[in-house]
From TrEMBL:
Positions of pyridoxal 5'-phosphate binding: 105-106, 133-136, 217, 220, 242, 272, 300
The keyword Zinc is annotated on this UniProt entry: no
Keyword Hydrolase included in the entry's annotation: yes
EC number(s) reported in the record: 3.7.1.3
Source species taxonomy: Bacteria, Pseudomonadati, Pseudomonadota, Gammaproteobacteria, Lysobacterales
Biological role stated in the UniProt entry: Catalyzes the cleavage of L-kynurenine (L-Kyn) and L-3-hydroxykynurenine (L-3OHKyn) into anthranilic acid (AA) and 3-hydroxyanthranilic acid (3-OHAA), respectively.
Protein's UniProt name: Kynureninase
Family matches, as InterPro entries: Kynureninase, PyrdxlP-dep_Trfase, PyrdxlP-dep_Trfase_major, PyrdxlP-dep_Trfase_small
NCBIfam families the UniProt entry points to: kynureninase (TIGR01814)
Gene Ontology terms for molecular function: kynureninase activity
Origin superkingdom: Bacteria
Reaction catalysed by this enzyme: 3-hydroxy-L-kynurenine + H2O = 3-hydroxyanthranilate + L-alanine + H(+); L-kynurenine + H2O = anthranilate + L-alanine + H(+)
CC cofactor: pyridoxal 5'-phosphate
Species name: Luteimonas terrae
Pathway: Cofactor biosynthesis; NAD(+) biosynthesis; quinolinate from L-kynurenine: step 2/3; Amino-acid degradation; L-kynurenine degradation; L-alanine and anthranilate from L-kynurenine: step 1/1
Length: 422
């Protein structure tokens, strides 16, 4: 029987990894004389080494060309946001005209809800998951109130089961129960605390069958799971780029609007940059939206903010989402195997065991309770192994396939074992 809990096994697995070369394309934080074991790509991805050159290219262009930089060269600023469109579309499984990089995630959620959350007295409700990331709940509650409805009755939060997970049965039951009142279903691609992943196409089918619009927050899914947004038939989606897509703190976010809404007459908050590019500089008084997701833009994009995204997307394009997903399943499976074989008396895994229901993240609870969990989390950090903590009692460990290794995973497990045995 193979002994997975050895340096030799981890080294041989990493040597056989076809994506191993990508680790050298990132700046890895140091812990003393060694690299940190960094498992927080689900919160802030590491800096691609190519990011600095992309930013400096913009700075140089600004220095040498000033305002003319908007119109000169292949990386001119007028069309700069379009340089990332095709690559983003490939990552999220969309048509190029269905995606745009703009704003921040919660801003995009609000702006798209202007058009896609149109409550009536008969259908005022939004369906979401209980325990959602606070920003989503704040946004949805404020939208319900803005339209004059009551979040106590019109913001419907689906409760997880006793295991903390949702599953399609609970989602389907909630849509069936409340479907006649639903204006919108807004669901995550991956639940941030537990790491549970969801079937976007099935949720969309159920929501549409009930007469609701369906949108997704893909903050923890974009760049993590192979997505098929166009084929899912979702109406809209939003996500950030600073997690798995490694584009830096506060990076420009992303949005998807399905092609069937490309020329919609739904209301929207309009801005100059969303106006049809062919006539934008005529400076006319009447808003004519660009067809597709770009028509939801308001202001010209922050070029310096988009530059690091280009560096990251080049790596994703080279690696390919199928290969990244395969390695992600391998690394997360290795972590799961070692936890069960070495740390079953210490850690409980809150994330589904079914690989189809999870991404790169395993959410862990220490069996001794929250106080012990915090003690372990701090011990890990003090020993160069960085995960993150989510209240009330979860340590999230996320092996990112572009830069994490089997050796990183083994180091995490050994560090936990030392803490237990101390």
């Amino acid at each position: 029987m193979t002994d997975f809990f050895t340096d030799d096994y981890a080294a041989s697995a990493d040597a056989a990894d076809p994506l191993q070369r990508f680790r050298a394309q990132f700046h890895l934080p140091r812990f003393g004389d060694v690299e940190q074991a960094y498992f927080v790509g689900n919160s802030l991805g590491l800096q691609p080494r190519g990011a600095r050159a992309q930013v400096e290219d913009v700075l140089d262009k600004w220095a040498m060309e000033a305002v003319e930089g908007h119109f000169r060269g292949n990386s001119q600023w007028m069309t700069y946001h379009g340089l990332v469109g095709a690559q983003l579309a490939e990552i999220v499984g969309a048509q190029p005209e269905e995606v745009v990089a703009m704003n921040s995630l919660t801003a995009n959620l609000h702006f798209l809800m202007v058009g896609f959350y149109r409550p009536t007295a008969e259908r005022p409700a939004i369906l979401m998951e209980a325990g959602a990331f606070p920003s989503d709940r704040y946004a949805l509650e404020s939208q319900v109130r803005f339209h004059g409805f009551d979040p106590d009755t019109d913001l419907i939060e689906v409760q997880p089961g006793a295991d903390g997970l949702f599953g399609m049965d609970a989602i389907a039951a909630a849509i069936e129960q409340h479907g006649h009142r639903l204006a919108l279903v807004l669901w995550p691609g991956v639940q941030y605390r537990t790491g549970e992943a969801f079937d976007l196409a099935e949720i969309t089918r159920l929501g549409h069958a009930a007469g609701a619009i369906v949108g997704f927050d893909l903050a923890h899914a974009a760049g993590n799971l192979p997505l098929q947004l166009h084929d899912s038939n979702a109406d809209f989606a939003v996500w950030c780029h600073y997690k798995y897509l490694n584009s830096g703190p506060g990076a420009v976010a992303g949005a998807f609007v399905h092609a069937r809404h490309a020329t919609t007459d739904r209301p929207r908050f309009a801005g100059w940059w969303g106006h049809d590019a062919a006539t934008r500089f005529r400076m006319g008084p009447d808003f004519q939206p660009t067809p597709g997701a770009e028509g939801w833009q308001l202001s010209n994009p922050p070029i310096l903010g988009l530059a690091p995204l280009r560096a990251s997307l080049d790596l994703f394009t080279e690696a390919g989402m199928p290969a990244l997903r395969a390695k992600s399943e391998t690394l997360t499976g290795y972590l799961e195997t070692l936890i069960h074989s070495q740390l079953d008396d210490v850690l409980d895994i809150a994330t589904p065991r079914d690989v189809a229901r999870r991404g790169a993240q395993l959410s862990l609870r220490v069996r001794g309770g929250r106080e012990q969990g915090r003690a372990l989390f701090e011990y890990l950090s003090d020993n160069g192994v960085l995960g993150d903590w989510r209240e009330p009692d979860v340590i999230r460990i996320s092996p990112a396939p572009l830069y994490n290794t089997h050796a990183d995973v083994l180091r995490f497990v050994r560090t936990v074992a030392r803490w237990r045995d101390a």
